[in-house]
Design goal:
heterodimer, A: mainly alpha, 5 helices, B: 5-stranded mixed β-sheet, 21 helices, about 5% strand, globular
Chain lengths: ~190, ~525
């Protein structure tokens, strides 16, 4: 029984060592494969793919924040329509509409700036990616030859994200106008 | 004789070699890029200290402000942040002249002192030269720490004082006066370095001491320490208007900042797998009641881990979540990491060696597991040659130092030094403080808040990255530049051969680029006022 326990402990110890060494080797191999110089040779295009993935992820975050911004604007409109809760007799016409207004207005501005900055970045990044791809030798094939399919696909994906960003920008412009109008009327 | 030479090879030779490496990495091409905005704030205030004896935010020409003028009162005395770093920089300018190298030099030297202290601390307390050498080596080769320590800012100063404090804590301060005074003085100095560091460090220090060294605490000494520290920091509490800034604490920011700081900590300071191992190890031992805390080294490792984690929690309601507030925890992390390498080595030599190589030479153990789990924080403004991607950090670092990086502030400084006449006015959307330090122009704009000018500025520097103030309104400088550029025929653009990067030489790994991108996001453009042609 004692011998069995010792054997069990030895096996566990050996397993632990193999597991530790294996995990560290996995990280080491993964790291080598992810080095930019290695990727450029063995997995060309993987960086663009990860950048595009990131841009799509950021687009998802923008979409979520735009929903929040729409809600902010709706709340501001509601507060503006309700007017001051108990207006004093000498209240000026352009009065502050209720106690929730400053916080709601601050949140709307914050959400707006968040979306604006993200959009600026993604647009600039996509433009720079397009420029880099345009300068790629495969993007100017010899006469009669087709464009590299991988390159064409990446350019198509960039355009898709750009189209999505244009949609966001349009919506943001509309919401910004509403916020400006509300601020002008109520502050 | 044999014993003394063995002692030399085991203890002092590795230390000398590590210090030489650290000195090279910290001092080599220290001025290869000019001050960026935050460094220039310290440098401009230090310049004014040489003139007025105190940090004034106005020198008769330019105003130093990044908070819409909230940093000072009617007499322009700087009351936004503590003065110790400003006086350190002023002393360096006094000795070395008003140069980038002189401004950064004392802070880089403090970085080297931190490497020495880490070694000395571990060796002195635990007598293990291998552990001590590994901890010092990890700190000396930590690129994020090196970047921060090469700044004309408080980062290495705060780290140095934290280490002195830990050193004093491990001495017999319960009975001896020297360590008690050192403990008290280091806490006071930490406050005058940056009070956010002080508040975030002291709480967890007390908690960790109560949890792990309760039996050693003498309450009469604690009272003396608390009273002494309180007396030291009391003037600072009023001078730096700490009570006003506590109004900026936001409980709603806690969750977001907790995420940010945890991300920073795991991506750049302490790898997630090792953190999980530590939790598992301590959890298991605690559950078994195996008396693991009887080992003084292990008890101390738990002590500094509690301090590091507590620090993060206390920082969360602070108004800004910035990696810079964690820099003083780097030596603590390297001490724990070195201890883990030693443990791994004693368990399985190959794994110990591999772990050491991964931690000293790469950032793979930090970045890859988080990437595989899909929890990596990689902002949209990224580049694959940054520390947010798997890389060999020292290679990137040396590449940057050995080649001329086209720094955005350098581009602006060189251009205005060559083309602007002394006394001309530059309105900059951002990067106003480096221009104040390096040129003899009047510089307005930036984050200074409302401004007035009788005649339109001679030069405009709009920046691609638009800045908003804390109320999420467009900055006044941005509004003024847009208004002036809307006037037809008033200004002509001049495009400079530099990228309009957001910050320049900012050390935060989320922003610091070592290699310029092949395809810049936006070129740097300045605008010159068009003067009417002179009549013949």
């Amino acid at each position: 029984m004692k011998k069995f326990a010792l054997l069990n402990s030895l096996n566990r110890r050996r397993c632990g060592k193999v597991l530790l060494a294996g995990s560290l080797l996995l990280v080491a191999v993964g790291g080598v494969l992810e080095l930019p110089s290695v990727q450029a040779v063995f997995f060309p295009g993987s960086y663009q793919a990860s950048e595009l993935k990131l841009a799509r992820h950021e687009c998802g975050m923008i979409a979520t924040r735009l929903i929040a911004l729409r809600a902010d604007v709706a709340k501001l409109q509601k507060l503006a329509a309700a007017g001051p809760s108990s207006p004093p007799p000498d209240l000026p016409v352009r009065a502050h509409p209720g106690p929730g207004w400053p916080a709601a207005f601050y949140k709307a501005r914050k959400d707006r700036v968040y979306v604006l900055q993200k959009l600026n970045y993604i647009n600039a990044k996509l433009k720079s990616m397009q420029g880099a791809l345009a300068r790629h030798p495969a993007s100017a094939p010899a006469a009669g030859a087709d464009q590299d399919p991988h390159l064409a696909r990446t350019l198509g994906q960039i355009q898709q994200v750009q189209a999505r960003c244009r949609k966001f920008a349009k919506e943001l412009a509309e919401l910004s106008e509403k916020i400006t109008a509300l601020a002008g009327n109520c502050e | 004789m044999i014993e003394s030479s063995r002692r030399f090879y085991l203890t002092w030779l590795p230390l000398v070699m590590i210090l030489a490496l650290g000195a090279f990495l910290l001092l080599y091409h220290l001025d290869h890029r000019p001050f960026w905005q935050d460094e220039a704030e310290t440098a401009c205030l230090a310049k004014n200290v040489l003139k007025y004896g105190v940090p004034r935010a106005y020198d008769g020409v330019n105003v130093i402000s990044q908070e819409q003028g909230h940093e000072f009162g009617h007499n322009y005395l700087w009351r936004w942040s503590p003065w110790l770093q400003i006086y350190v920089a002023a002393a360096a300018f006094k000795i070395g002249g008003l140069t980038t190298y002189a401004g950064r030099f004392p802070f880089a030297i403090l970085g080297i002192a931190c490497i020495f202290l880490v070694y000395q601390f571990v060796y002195h307390n635990f007598g293990d030269p291998v552990w001590a050498s590994l901890a010092a080596l990890l700190l000396a080769t930590s690129v994020v720490f090196l970047l921060f320590a090469r700044q004309c800012r408080y980062y290495s100063l705060g780290t140095f004082i934290t280490l002195i404090n830990l050193y004093a804590f491990r001495e017999d301060w319960q009975h001896k006066t020297g360590p008690l005074i050192l403990l008290c003085a280091s806490l006071g100095l930490l406050f005058y370095t940056n009070y956010l560091l002080f508040f975030s460090y002291v709480g967890p220090l007390v908690l960790a001491a109560l949890l792990l060294y309760y039996r050693e605490i003498r309450w009469s000494r604690v009272l003396v320490l608390a009273a002494g520290t309180g007396l030291l920091i009391l003037p600072g509490l009023f001078l730096f208007r700490v009570e006003q800034q506590t109004a900026m604490i936001s409980l709603s920011a806690i969750f977001g900042h907790l995420q940010e700081y945890t991300g920073d900590f795991l991506q750049f300071m302490f790898p997630l797998p090792l953190g999980l191992y530590m939790l598992w190890h301590w959890g298991r031992n605690f559950w078994k009641g195996s008396g693991f805390l009887a080992d003084p080294a292990e008890r101390f490792i738990l002590f500094i881990s509690v301090i590091a984690l507590g620090n993060i929690f206390i920082l969360t309601p602070a108004p800004q979540g910035e990696m810079r507030y964690l820099v003083h925890l780097y030596p603590l992390c390297t001490i724990v990491l070195a201890w883990l390498i030693c443990r791994a080595w004693s368990y399985h030599k190959f794994s110990g060696a591999l772990l050491g190589v991964l931690l000293v030479g790469t950032n793979w153990l930090y970045v890859l597991p988080m990437e595989w789990l899909g929890i990596i924080n990689r902002p949209v403004h990224n580049d694959r040659y940054m520390l947010i991607y798997p890389n060999i950090p020292l290679k990137l670092y040396l590449t940057e130092l050995s080649s001329s990086y086209p720094d955005v502030n350098e581009g602006l400084i060189k251009f205005f030094q060559a083309h602007a006449r002394p006394g001309q006015t530059i309105l900059a959307a951002y990067g106003d403080l480096p221009l104040e330090f390096y040129t003899s122009c009047k510089v307005i704009g930036g984050l200074q808040g409302p401004m007035s000018f009788k005649r339109s500025p001679d030069w405009l520097v709009p920046r691609w990255y638009v800045r908003w103030n804390r109320q999420y309104n467009l900055n006044d400088s941005e509004k003024a530049i847009r208004r002036l550029l809307a006037q037809p025929g008033a200004y002509r653009p001049v495009t400079l051969p530099y990228e309009d990067e957001i910050f320049g030489n900012r050390p935060d790994p989320y922003f610091h680029r070592f290699i310029p991108p092949v395809e810049p996001l936006s070129p740097l453009t300045v605008y010159e006022k068009i003067r009417p042609a002179k009549q013949p």
